[in-house]
Design brief:
With 69 residues, the chain is of the alpha+beta class. The protein is built from two helices and three strands. It has a three-stranded mixed sheet, with no helix packed on it.
Length: 69
Amino acid sequence: MSGGRSAGGGYDNWEVLSTETRPPLTTVDMNLEVLGRTAAQHLFAAMDGRATPGVHRMPCRLTIRESTL
């Protein structure tokens, strides 16, 4: 890239890392609290004989910061 500019990004939107770097990193926020809660619900359902097989898609969002050109 010209002008010494670069682009980068992070995966888990960990605030300590993503906002304290220079430039602040653009990240994908996986909403880990909801993801963990949903995984636990599926686990308990499976343990109770109510398994929900297949792929379960969870929403995420892009948090754009200064590392995006």
